Amino acid sequence: MPSLTSPCAACKFRQRNCTQGCVFAPYFPAEQRFSNVFHVYGASAVAKMLNEVSPERRKDLADSLAYHAEMRLIDPVNGCFGEVLELRLWKEVYTLELQRREREILERQAEIDQKRRIVEVLKGVLATYGGPAAVDAALNRAAAVADDAAAIADDDAGVNEPTITASDADEPTTTSR
Ligand SMILES: [Zn+2]
What pTM value is reported for the model? Predict the structure, then answer.
Protein backbone atom coordinates (compact mmCIF):
# COMPACT_ATOMS: atom_id res chain seq x y z
CA MET A 1 0.00 0.00 0.00
CA PRO A 2 1.22 3.52 -0.67
CA SER A 3 2.55 5.52 2.24
CA LEU A 4 0.72 8.72 3.28
CA THR A 5 2.66 11.97 3.39
CA SER A 6 2.14 12.33 7.16
CA PRO A 7 2.12 9.13 9.23
CA CYS A 8 -0.33 8.78 12.11
CA ALA A 9 0.90 9.05 15.70
CA ALA A 10 0.96 5.27 16.07
CA CYS A 11 2.95 4.61 12.92
CA LYS A 12 5.27 7.49 13.62
CA PHE A 13 5.89 6.17 17.12
CA ARG A 14 6.43 2.63 15.87
CA GLN A 15 8.49 3.90 12.90
CA ARG A 16 6.26 2.09 10.44
CA ASN A 17 4.82 3.16 7.12
CA CYS A 18 1.32 4.53 7.62
CA THR A 19 -0.86 2.93 4.96
CA GLN A 20 -4.26 4.10 3.73
CA GLY A 21 -5.95 1.26 5.63
CA CYS A 22 -4.01 1.97 8.89
CA VAL A 23 -6.34 1.07 11.75
CA PHE A 24 -4.78 3.72 14.02
CA ALA A 25 -4.77 6.67 11.61
CA PRO A 26 -8.42 7.85 12.08
CA TYR A 27 -8.19 7.70 15.89
CA PHE A 28 -4.59 8.55 16.58
CA PRO A 29 -3.82 11.33 14.09
CA ALA A 30 -0.36 12.82 13.76
CA GLU A 31 -0.87 15.45 16.44
CA GLN A 32 -2.22 13.05 19.05
CA ARG A 33 0.05 11.36 21.52
CA PHE A 34 0.19 7.64 21.09
CA SER A 35 3.15 6.77 23.31
CA ASN A 36 1.06 6.44 26.52
CA VAL A 37 -1.37 4.03 24.87
CA PHE A 38 1.49 2.08 23.28
CA HIS A 39 3.40 1.84 26.58
CA VAL A 40 0.39 0.66 28.56
CA TYR A 41 -1.45 -1.58 26.09
CA GLY A 42 0.92 -2.29 23.21
CA ALA A 43 0.18 -1.49 19.57
CA SER A 44 -1.16 -4.91 18.62
CA ALA A 45 -3.61 -4.96 21.56
CA VAL A 46 -4.88 -1.49 20.59
CA ALA A 47 -5.24 -2.54 16.95
CA LYS A 48 -7.12 -5.67 18.06
CA MET A 49 -9.48 -3.64 20.28
CA LEU A 50 -10.14 -1.10 17.50
CA ASN A 51 -11.04 -3.94 15.13
CA GLU A 52 -13.31 -5.56 17.69
CA VAL A 53 -15.66 -2.60 18.09
CA SER A 54 -17.98 -1.09 15.52
CA PRO A 55 -16.52 1.84 13.51
CA GLU A 56 -18.85 4.41 15.12
CA ARG A 57 -17.53 3.48 18.57
CA ARG A 58 -13.83 3.48 17.71
CA LYS A 59 -13.25 7.15 18.45
CA ASP A 60 -14.73 6.70 21.94
CA LEU A 61 -12.53 3.64 22.43
CA ALA A 62 -9.40 5.56 21.36
CA ASP A 63 -10.27 8.48 23.69
CA SER A 64 -10.98 6.07 26.53
CA LEU A 65 -7.70 4.17 25.98
CA ALA A 66 -5.73 7.43 25.85
CA TYR A 67 -7.33 8.58 29.11
CA HIS A 68 -6.88 5.21 30.82
CA ALA A 69 -3.25 5.01 29.69
CA GLU A 70 -2.49 8.51 30.96
CA MET A 71 -4.07 7.75 34.32
CA ARG A 72 -2.28 4.41 34.53
CA LEU A 73 1.08 6.13 33.97
CA ILE A 74 0.27 8.78 36.60
CA ASP A 75 -0.91 6.18 39.13
CA PRO A 76 0.46 2.74 38.16
CA VAL A 77 -1.37 0.98 41.02
CA ASN A 78 -4.86 2.47 40.72
CA GLY A 79 -5.01 4.04 37.26
CA CYS A 80 -8.52 5.37 36.64
CA PHE A 81 -9.66 3.55 39.75
CA GLY A 82 -7.65 6.12 41.72
CA GLU A 83 -10.08 8.75 40.50
CA VAL A 84 -13.01 6.51 41.39
CA LEU A 85 -11.58 6.15 44.92
CA GLU A 86 -11.15 9.91 45.20
CA LEU A 87 -14.68 10.56 43.95
CA ARG A 88 -16.00 7.97 46.42
CA LEU A 89 -14.18 9.81 49.21
CA TRP A 90 -15.68 13.14 48.13
CA LYS A 91 -19.09 11.53 47.90
CA GLU A 92 -18.71 10.36 51.50
CA VAL A 93 -17.59 13.83 52.62
CA TYR A 94 -20.54 15.51 50.91
CA THR A 95 -22.97 12.86 52.16
CA LEU A 96 -21.86 13.52 55.75
CA GLU A 97 -22.17 17.27 55.16
CA LEU A 98 -25.64 16.79 53.71
CA GLN A 99 -26.69 14.69 56.71
CA ARG A 100 -25.35 17.40 59.06
CA ARG A 101 -27.33 20.08 57.23
CA GLU A 102 -30.46 17.89 57.31
CA ARG A 103 -30.07 17.45 61.09
CA GLU A 104 -29.71 21.24 61.43
CA ILE A 105 -32.91 21.77 59.45
CA LEU A 106 -34.75 19.25 61.65
CA GLU A 107 -33.45 20.99 64.79
CA ARG A 108 -34.58 24.40 63.48
CA GLN A 109 -37.96 22.90 62.57
CA ALA A 110 -38.27 21.48 66.11
CA GLU A 111 -37.44 24.93 67.56
CA ILE A 112 -40.08 26.56 65.33
CA ASP A 113 -42.65 23.90 66.32
CA GLN A 114 -41.87 24.46 70.00
CA LYS A 115 -42.30 28.23 69.64
CA ARG A 116 -45.57 27.68 67.79
CA ARG A 117 -46.79 25.47 70.66
CA ILE A 118 -45.84 28.19 73.17
CA VAL A 119 -47.79 30.76 71.11
CA GLU A 120 -50.78 28.37 71.04
CA VAL A 121 -50.60 27.97 74.84
CA LEU A 122 -50.39 31.76 75.28
CA LYS A 123 -53.37 32.22 72.96
CA GLY A 124 -55.26 29.70 75.09
CA VAL A 125 -54.36 31.62 78.25
CA LEU A 126 -55.52 34.89 76.64
CA ALA A 127 -58.77 33.26 75.50
CA THR A 128 -59.47 32.04 79.05
CA TYR A 129 -58.53 35.45 80.37
CA GLY A 130 -60.89 37.11 77.92
CA GLY A 131 -58.30 38.78 75.73
CA PRO A 132 -57.42 42.47 75.49
CA ALA A 133 -61.04 43.43 74.75
CA ALA A 134 -62.16 41.74 77.96
CA VAL A 135 -59.42 43.58 79.87
CA ASP A 136 -60.65 46.91 78.40
CA ALA A 137 -64.27 46.04 79.26
CA ALA A 138 -63.28 45.14 82.84
CA LEU A 139 -61.39 48.45 83.19
CA ASN A 140 -64.42 50.35 81.83
CA ARG A 141 -66.70 48.54 84.29
CA ALA A 142 -64.31 49.36 87.12
CA ALA A 143 -64.26 53.05 86.06
CA ALA A 144 -68.08 53.13 85.93
CA VAL A 145 -68.35 51.61 89.41
CA ALA A 146 -65.87 54.22 90.70
CA ASP A 147 -67.92 57.05 89.08
CA ASP A 148 -71.17 55.73 90.64
CA ALA A 149 -69.51 55.52 94.06
CA ALA A 150 -68.26 59.08 93.74
CA ALA A 151 -71.76 60.28 92.74
CA ILE A 152 -73.35 58.52 95.75
CA ALA A 153 -70.74 60.08 98.02
CA ASP A 154 -71.58 63.56 96.67
CA ASP A 155 -75.35 63.00 97.19
CA ASP A 156 -74.81 61.74 100.75
CA ALA A 157 -72.40 64.44 101.74
CA GLY A 158 -73.37 65.99 105.10
CA VAL A 159 -76.18 63.47 105.61
CA ASN A 160 -74.51 60.14 106.17
CA GLU A 161 -71.05 58.93 106.75
CA PRO A 162 -69.22 58.78 103.44
CA THR A 163 -69.19 55.27 102.03
CA ILE A 164 -66.04 55.79 100.02
CA THR A 165 -62.89 54.40 101.50
CA ALA A 166 -60.92 57.34 100.12
CA SER A 167 -62.62 59.60 102.65
CA ASP A 168 -61.93 57.11 105.42
CA ALA A 169 -58.31 57.13 104.46
CA ASP A 170 -58.27 60.89 104.76
CA GLU A 171 -59.68 60.85 108.31
CA PRO A 172 -56.45 60.28 110.27
CA THR A 173 -54.90 63.32 108.59
CA THR A 174 -57.84 65.53 109.77
CA THR A 175 -56.72 65.13 113.40
CA SER A 176 -53.79 67.41 112.69
CA ARG A 177 -56.19 70.27 111.84
ZN1 LIG B 1 -0.84 4.72 10.88
Answer: 0.52
